[in-house]
Amino acid sequence: MSQSFLPPTRLLMGPGPSNVPKRVLEAMARPTIGHLDPVFVAFMDELKGLLQWVFRSDNTLTLPVSGPGTAGMEACFVNLLEPGDKIVVCRNGAFGQRMVEMSERIGAEVIVVDQDWGRAVDREAVARTLAEHPDARVLAFVHAETSTGAVSDAAALAALAIEHDCLSIMDCVTSLGGMTLEVDDWGVDAAYSGTQKCLSCPPGLSPVTLSERAAEKIRARNYPVQSWFMDFSLVMNYWGGGGKRAYHHTAPVNALYGLHEALLILKEEGLESAWRRHAETHQQLKRMLEGLGIEFVVPEGERLPQLNAVRIPAGIDDAEGRRYLLEEHGIEVGAGLGPLAGKIWRIGLMGETCRPESVTRLEQGLRGLLGR
Amino acid sequence: MSQSFLPPTRLLMGPGPSNVPKRVLEAMARPTIGHLDPVFVAFMDELKGLLQWVFRSDNTLTLPVSGPGTAGMEACFVNLLEPGDKIVVCRNGAFGQRMVEMSERIGAEVIVVDQDWGRAVDREAVARTLAEHPDARVLAFVHAETSTGAVSDAAALAALAIEHDCLSIMDCVTSLGGMTLEVDDWGVDAAYSGTQKCLSCPPGLSPVTLSERAAEKIRARNYPVQSWFMDFSLVMNYWGGGGKRAYHHTAPVNALYGLHEALLILKEEGLESAWRRHAETHQQLKRMLEGLGIEFVVPEGERLPQLNAVRIPAGIDDAEGRRYLLEEHGIEVGAGLGPLAGKIWRIGLMGETCRPESVTRLEQGLRGLLGR
Known about the structure:
By secondary structure, chain A is an alpha/beta fold. Chain A has helices spanning 22-28, 38-55, 69-80, 94-106, 123-132, 154-163, 183-186, 212-219, 232-239, 253-269, 271-291, 318-329, 356-370; strands at residues 11-13, 61-65, 86-91, 109-114, 138-142, 144-145, 150-151, 167-171, 190-192, 206-210, 307-311, 331-335, 344-348. The first copy, chain A, folds into 2 domains: 11-16 and 271-370, Aspartate Aminotransferase, domain 1, CATH 3.90.1150.10; 22-266, Aspartate Aminotransferase, domain 2 (3-Layer(aba) Sandwich).
């Protein structure tokens, strides 16, 4: 019964994971070494530099959290929020909702700025809310809402946080590497991402960066961070640099090899070139979808290039249509989440997947599905 | 400056990671597929079966937590403890201390049963403490203390928990796959492990299993679990089986390929055979070390076969000696932690590393170091 698992080869056009380049897979298959080996410690320093580069940040506290994006997300919230702190959360999709739930579990007082799913966060509404709540400590928002395909003006929201003396937490799980993102220029205090989107690694790591303001908040906390595993004051001693590492937990050595290689690939292409490739391939996808009469959920101007939410074509069953694309064409597209379940599909064009050939193959699949 | 990272090949004889077989590394390099792909969902069911097999348990709630052993550890504590709950923690090393710290952060009332580092937990002391605290809800202990190389009588401790109507949490990070371990026969309620010890995978996943009694406790909680990421009531819907998976977080797909392959390798050998191999290779190591006059920290009868704490030989500098073994012989041995730092080395014989050839190579290294 039990045999080695030989996965099929898929074209991964869902909300993540995206396709992983051979080079990254091969890097992960290199021999495991000790996480405190001097060679590995030097590697960690280099990896940190690459993460600073992709985040466009000089933040000292920049590291890959040893868990998926959700772990990096929770790490930011539990470190920057204390029980009783007031936080303003922008909720325009499933990941904004998750921010609310995490903040509540910390015992924070949560003020929600709601927006329709599929729309960008409303800057004016956020500004009004921050003005009404001058005691708010944190503003949290999602740059690229993976559940709806909407982008919000992260620069403007981070600026509002500064203006109102809040720390900002930015979810950039789906944006990092796929579109303009400037942690330092925008003045974002905490940003977390995932590896399985535009960085084209397997899932399992969460790159995180925190500003000096955020680090100060952590140092000045009244209560210990509720999570020992996620406590950045402990993790900092491990990823802190300077050659001396205090053991905290065992780093996922081979996954880090993969992330390092993926960042090298991105660096060879150039970050702005990768952003441009995502924007251009999105235009190609848009023309293709419009040619087939398939409609976008998000209004033009608020759309993510790398994650395209579209209405399920009339007459097509959600699960059956996705099964057809997967089994007959080897293409994965994503289902809708929450209120959009059964109504939309999410078409990813992230990282390695973001190529003209992917659009061409999807067009063939969709034509087969629609009988055209 | 930035180039692909080509790690050296090491013989990993520290406290983990252990050496990873080529088959496992190759499995991890297979193409990434979607974590909700039907093929992957079927794979998850098979992996769950393999984990039940290695834990010797029929527990429905058996899964690999998407993070290192420390994440699986914290997941057990935050799910089974609520603020105000009384817990008895057996502390005979660094990981018992970590249990105390995690429990305190949850807001539990922590009663500690201390034992000297390097000794097994004292069953009688635990029995007395449980009798003195009839309102204790949880008993937590470490089966195989990675920081000292001592094994405790997990069967007896789990029996005490049942007798005193407590749930038991067992750390089996270093024991799983390397020595007798019977989750169901012993009546353990929650056990967590790591992949980078006797399972010989890279670090990054934490196999966990919870009894029906533990699942009932989670369902009957008064407060939500403080961690959203680690909340088993949410994770259960994702790993729960039955074909329908609710999205919770993105599973670390390729790391799971590796774990699956590692468990297959173990199954081909047979679990009892692997336990025997660890016991026999330990005897070989013991003879070799005694031949060189190197002393064990832990009294005979309380020693782990797979992790051997020894006094640093007289006249040898801790860091310099380990550097020599690493650089001149390609062998990693582990340093001491906490009060044992600078006094001991930890010699791992775990999983793939646990071969007669490893002992032979280490002997050469030690002879070179000692000039004999």
